[in-house]
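Morning run. Coffee first, then this:
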Amino acid sequence: MSRESDFFVRRLHSLLGIIPVGLFLVQHLVINHFATQGPEAFNAASDFMGNLPFVLFLEWFVIYIPLMFHAFYGVYIAFTFKGNVKRYGTFRNWMFMWQRITGVFLVIFIAWHIYETRIQKALGADVNYDMMADILASPFMLVFYIVGVLAATFHLSNGLWGFLVTWGIAQSPRSQQIVSYITIAVFVILSGIGIRAILAFV
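And here it is:
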């Protein structure tokens, strides 16, 4: 791959991680958070999203295709980058490493989550509160989903920092420090929303 094409693909990978994949994650966490208001509220929110006009088009071209590109190219990056946290144990180097680790884990987690929900729906199951309650009744799956949510919110938050730097929005050391504080806050807020939603199914 030439430098020009590699530059373009990495920029596209960074962009898709925020728009639309990152925005979808936020929306998904918010919809799931309706579970804290009871089964009826969650089912109503889930049904609303599932009955949007052109839902199959939206799922494939706004979610699945961008997500697959971001995931597969991200795995390529994860297995080709040379980590240097032992020699240069700076905060950003550690964040860079954990971005790769969470990315690989999320490929597994998201694939399993899609299998348990979207594929089961295609086979005739109802994606509702009871389905998620049954999944999370297993202590292993409960821990797996909590780790999955934390990995996803970290990956998005840290990826947002990388996006703002990569696209030249945060260039100075001062602006990058401010963005670090903002993305940490994003991680804490989204993690709280996600974990509260998971526990509402238990």
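DSSP finds eight helices and no strands in the chain. Good start to the day.
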